[in-house]
Amino acid sequence: MNNIKACIFDLDGVIVDTAIYHYKAWRRLANSLGFDFSEEQNEQLKGVSRMRSLEIVLEAGGITKTDAEKEQLAEQKNAWYVEMINQMTTDEILPGAREFVQSCRDAGIKTALGSASKNSMTILEKLKIVNLFDAIIDGNKVTKAKPDPEVFLKGAEALGIEPQYCVVFEDAIAGVEAAKAGGMKAIGIGDPKVLHEADLVVSGLNEMTLDKL
Ligand code: B16
Ligand code: MG
User: Fold this and answer.
1) Domain residue extents for the chain
2) What tens digit of pLDDT does each residue of 26-40 get?
């Protein structure tokens, strides 16, 4: 992976783990509609956009809703989710995340956030790490969800670095695919068997060092 000039980080599952809060909010929504939603089913929602997540939850309950109803349900889930992330503290940054992003910056490598979440800014503020990123591209700035490369291409553009010099850190299969589709390198965070399309897989940013780039 020579010549890396920029690192683009996914948020949920890479810098912080908000999956538990997403799960609690989706489960509460499912319960309010009369069915349960398991932690196992929740796995399918990682890295997936809010509306697509809602569709998966409704499918699990065998429920159909109109578009207007879906908007309302997604809004309700988000309100519950936001209530929880507003309580987050700096302790919730994943091990090694702050240190690795900072080491990239110290080495002159540009850094960006590339997340599907429309709540990225709130989370970064709670963790007090807004300033770790030269560019922040989140769910409010993109129209196409991963595996479409839009979020990462916009990140590269904002940094002024061509895709071939960028590496993306991702915990979701769709995110690794998005990086590859954008002509970038991908480092998976998680299980190598799941993220087999990645150029390298580590268990967390605490395992990353600049010489692995
Ligand atoms: P929101 P990432 C993703 O974040 C989450 O993994 C996914 O579970 C969530 O549905 C999505 O953001 C949208 O989040 O409802 O807050 O806009 O992994 O792309 O950082
Ligand atoms: Mg993720």
Assistant:
1) 6-17+90-207, 19-85
2) 999 999 999 999 999
Determine if the peptide bond prior to 163 is cis (ω within 30°). no
pTM for the model stands at: 0.94
Local confidence band at 178 (pLDDT 50, 70, 90 cut-offs): very high
* Residue identifier of the C-alpha nearest atom 1 of ligand 1: 117
The domain 19-85 is classified under which CATH number: 3.30.1330.60, 3.30.1330.10, 1.10.10.10, 1.10.150.240?
1.10.150.240
Question: Is residue 13 lining ligand 1, measured as CB closer than 6 Å?
Answer: yes
- Nearest CA among 178, 208, 172 for reference residue 190: 172
Kindly tell me the sign of the dihedral angle through the C-alpha atoms of 72, 27, 89, 140.
negative
**Ligand 1, atom 5: nearest CA belongs to which residue?**
47
Is 18's C-beta closer than 6 angstroms to any atom of ligand 1?
A: no
Domain covering 6-17+90-207 in this structure, CATH number? 3.40.50.1000
Pocket test for ligand 1, best of 14, 22, 151 (most atoms within 8 A of CB): 22
- The predicted pLDDT at position 46 comes to 85
